[in-house]
Amino acid sequence: MPKRVDHDRRREELAGALVRCARVHGLHATGFREVAAEAGVSVNLVQYYFPTKQQLLHGGLLHLRARISRRLSHALAALPEPADPVAQVRAILVHLMPHDQDSADLYRVHAAYAALALTDPALAAQPHTAGPDELHPVLTDLVTRAGQQGRTDPRRDPRTTATTLLALATGLSAYTTSGYHTAADAVRGLDDQLDLLFPPADPSPVRRSALRG
Amino acid sequence: MPKRVDHDRRREELAGALVRCARVHGLHATGFREVAAEAGVSVNLVQYYFPTKQQLLHGGLLHLRARISRRLSHALAALPEPADPVAQVRAILVHLMPHDQDSADLYRVHAAYAALALTDPALAAQPHTAGPDELHPVLTDLVTRAGQQGRTDPRRDPRTTATTLLALATGLSAYTTSGYHTAADAVRGLDDQLDLLFPPADPSPVRRSALRG
DNA sequence: GTTTTCATAGTACCGTTGTACGATAAAACG
DNA sequence: CGTTTTATCGTACAACGGTACTATGAAAAC
């Protein structure tokens, strides 16, 4: 075997194996032995790259976040060019939710990390474990831009709208993952909310005025 | 010690101890020994009432659900008499969210159960583990009643509205529990959404018309 | 060509966990 | 009063977890 190995690459492989295990048996039940078996290497090799379990878990979290972030970038890049802020908001939220097999797996494990962080201070100390820390400003900015284009009620606080949308996506994702409804239902719920917040410039009767006057 | 003991009572006590432990160290890290120590009894006594760990976990879940349900009933009973459906919806959702120490603990452990159910088929098989199974019809009914009173857009599907509200409450609760924002912020977000869905019969300028025509 | 370094493997150790077994005091029952 | 039941306890056992120690073949360095 060669002497020099790309440690980062190897860590990525092992972190991928960790996520693959956690997706099935859960994060708490995934240890060195399972990861090693999944990756097809010895137990000690896992320890060679992740000396302690905390580092292993941390590596898995980094891997997870990188994959989610990559998916999000692709989704945004695939949007048609005249960047519509509402469409961007929708793209971000939809691709945050478990809408296909891959994203369902990612969300599942991410939820497991979030649950673990509730009681594990070492994980909670890691930035971006579960919260919308870095996404919230982005959404706030997009919502603000949409407001400047007159797409929403100017009296609404964009930060509140961003929080609401993120929380809704989170809740809908949780229900999808629990099997309470389908991914399509979740997307429908999200679109419904987007229509409510950013009413389409429609020739149809105005949504709300029907029940006034 | 007396010969006859109310087993159900004892089980409640032990389940309470389980929840108290899980609140701090997490559900997966809570075993017979911690529960026994928390309850001030021997390890074997816990096993006497919950022979296996699955039964112990199941007992804790039942205890949890009973307490949440009791809190909800009290919240609904405390409402002023001419039952306003929107106020009832709000009461249900607010008291589902972690808005004080007790409900924060309950939500925390409930979230741990939900996370565990994602990978533990035995828990997932238990009804009402995490989903809004029994609350959704209630909310749908209340939203329908609100619609009959002309409080909301008649074109909206009450079931969709109920799902949205539940998912929003879930997401806001998750962020509160993760420490991303305060419980008051979460309630504000919920109230904002309720105002959006059920605009107050206001003398003030109509919310949405400001940006049309 | 020898020596050092490095990636990998096997195995062993110790703590913890769920679970089982046996013991005991007290109450109930005859 | 004796016996049986019952709530409780202490201890033990087998398995599994993370972690540490040692070995080994191969590449690199000199």
Principal-axes geometry of chain A comes out as elongated
Quaternary structure annotation? homodimer
Helical residue percent band of chain A: 55-70%
Structural class of chain A: mainly alpha
The secondary-structure element order of chain A is: HHHHHHHHHH
The average pLDDT score of chain A comes to 91
Low-confidence stretches of chain A: 205-213
Number of discrete helical segments of chain A: 10
Proportion of residues in extended strands of chain A: under 5%
Largest interface between protein chains, with number of residues from each side: A-B, 59 and 59 residues
Describe the protein's architecture and organization.
Chain A has 213 residues and is mostly helical. In chain A, 67% of the residues lie in helices and 0% in strands. Chain A is built from ten helices and no strands. In chain A, helix 4 (53-77) runs antiparallel to helix 5 and helix 5 runs antiparallel to helix 8. Chains A and B meet through helix 6, helix 9 and helix 10 of A and helix 6, helix 9 and helix 10 of B. Chain A binds a DNA duplex (30 and 30 nucleotides) through helix 3.
